[in-house]
User: Which sequence fits this backbone?
């Protein structure tokens, strides 16, 4: 006998189960890392250099290194990404060249991060002779997050209603004035959201910095962009796999700092997007 | 005196012949209405006067549109000064998501040399007075323009044009989103603006054309079928098709 009501209940149950399964790992990751890492967190852990072969002390150089790398990546990727997005959304006509550009961006987003690492090593470290340095690492991370910034910025620009552009042009504004006065200001929240998502991604990746910047152990802070630096994701890798007898607390503490940093970035992006949607009236 | 002289204007969207041999004179400081059923080319004609059709890809024009002795379809035409001179009010009131003040002075921000506060304030006051918004809005100039009523928004859009010092105002169904009272007040405003501006209004609403315009053109399938004094067009149409349209037999 067919029983549509019962079938619907079964279907609903499995759909709900599948959805619930998405939440479980996220929740468990956060809970496990918080429970195991929280005991390690104190002022010394956040502000001191690693001591006793990274088995004690803090992770301050790694935090600073990650901040430098992320800033460097943004300084490089945001202007290029934004200008490219403006070109693609406002000026580009539909032709072979622009289709190729768009295809490249999609593919750039799909390149595995370790390949970026190798590419950064070949281009920045070896070819441009920047050595393993903050500069090389930042540029590599910058290229990695370019597609995120271009795609989100383009979406933000394209979501500005066409009628605003028409009105502005009909008032005698040039195309560039229209972009500067009308399109860009209305797209900024979306662009910021994309940038923050890019930052979050850059902060968390290990592979791109592996060959280009990351130092195994460096008890002092970097002095210039040509210095190597420690970074949180790589430090976590090192103390988890390369150094024997590191207290579990320290490993999870490091993971917690990194996770907090990335989740905080994503949360900021969500809040900005939410506020923007509420404000938007057109 | 003719402000806009159209000679044998033809326009194509790709293969589609949207305007066919249109010729007409639009008189200075008068209101000219263009009526006709949807898709007849009346908005296209309007948008030819400030070259807004250029924004659409694959548009091709032939013929002449002479505004103040200059053929604006010529290649070297400066679109910025053309669009300053020939302003446009759109169907849907479309203020920018900025303050009321910034909306009015947008043109000045873009074109102006004198961006001093007192100059901008003077322009905002003059323009808002011209559209009879000043008394209502003078204390809320910094409020967002998107919070205004539809009628106020449409007035604000007209003020934004006046601030650019246009002499020709193109209106593309400016009242189609407004209720009858607001429509009547906007029509009243049009009559007042006629002293200084040449107004061309595209409208679906034949009563509106009869009420406000001095001259009327009737368009059908890309052709300007009839053009003349509004009274004549509505009471003694020369063309059978005009008569059919205004008596409601189609459209």
Assistant:
């Amino acid at each position: 006998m067919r029983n549509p009501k019962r079938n619907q209940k079964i279907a609903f149950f499995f759909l709900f189960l599948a959805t619930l399964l998405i939440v479980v790992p996220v929740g468990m990751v956060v809970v496990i890392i918080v429970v195991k890492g929280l005991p390690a967190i104190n002022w010394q852990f956040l502000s001191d250099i690693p001591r006793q072969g990274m088995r004690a002390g803090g992770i301050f150089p790694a935090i600073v290194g990650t901040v430098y790398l992320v800033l460097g990546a943004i300084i490089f990727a945001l202007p290029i990404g934004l200008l490219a997005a403006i070109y693609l959304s406002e000026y580009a006509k539909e032709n072979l060249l622009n289709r190729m550009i768009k295809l490249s961006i999609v593919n750039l987003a799909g390149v595995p991060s370790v390949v970026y690492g190798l590419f950064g090593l070949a281009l920045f470290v070896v070819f441009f002779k920047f050595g393993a340095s903050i500069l090389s690492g930042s540029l590599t991370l910058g290229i990695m997050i370019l597609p995120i910034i271009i795609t989100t910025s383009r979406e933000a620009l394209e979501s500005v209603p066409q009628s605003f552009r028409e009105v502005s042009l009909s008032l005698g504004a040039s195309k560039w004035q229209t972009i500067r006065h009308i399109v860009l200001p209305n797209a900024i929240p979306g662009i910021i959201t994309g940038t923050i998502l890019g930052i979050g991604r850059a902060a968390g990746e290990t592979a791109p910095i592996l060959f280009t910047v990351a130092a195994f152990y460096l008890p002092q802070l970097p002095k210039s962009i040509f210095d190597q630096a420690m970074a949180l994701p790589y430090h976590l890798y090192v103390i988890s796999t390369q150094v024997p007898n590191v207290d579990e607390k320290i490993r999870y503490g490091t993971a917690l700092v990194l996770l907090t940093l990335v989740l905080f970035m994503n949360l900021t992006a969500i809040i900005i997007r939410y506020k923007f949607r509420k404000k938007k009236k057109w | 005196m003719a402000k806009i002289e159209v000679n044998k204007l033809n326009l194509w969207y790709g293969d589609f012949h949207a305007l066919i041999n249109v010729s007409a004179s639009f008189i200075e400081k008068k209101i000219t209405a263009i009526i006709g059923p949807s898709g007849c080319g009346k908005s296209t004609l309007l948008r030819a006067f400030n070259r807004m059709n250029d924004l659409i890809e694959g548009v091709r024009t032939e013929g002449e549109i002479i505004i103040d002795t200059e053929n604006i379809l010529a290649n070297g035409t400066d679109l910025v000064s053309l669009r300053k001179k020939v302003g446009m009010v759109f169907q849907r009131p479309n203020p920018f998501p900025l303050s009321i003040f910034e909306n009015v002075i947008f043109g000045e921000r873009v074109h102006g040399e004198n961006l001093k506060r007192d100059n901008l304030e003077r322009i905002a006051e003059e323009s808002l007075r011209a559209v009879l918004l000043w008394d209502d809005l003078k204390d809320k100039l910094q409020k967002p323009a998107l919070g205004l009523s539809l009628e106020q928004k449409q007035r604000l859009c007209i003020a934004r044009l006046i601030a650019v010092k246009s002499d020709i105002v193109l209106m593309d169904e400016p009242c189609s989103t407004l209720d009858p009272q607001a429509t009547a007040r906007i029509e009243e405003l049009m009559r007042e603006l006629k002293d200084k501006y040449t107004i061309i209004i595209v409208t679906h609403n034949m009563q509106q054309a009869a009420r406000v315009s001095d001259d009327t053109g009737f368009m059908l399938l890309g052709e300007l079928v009839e053009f003349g004094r509004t009274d004549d067009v509505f009471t003694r149409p020369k063309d059978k098709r005009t008569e059919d349209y205004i008596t409601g037999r189609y459209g």
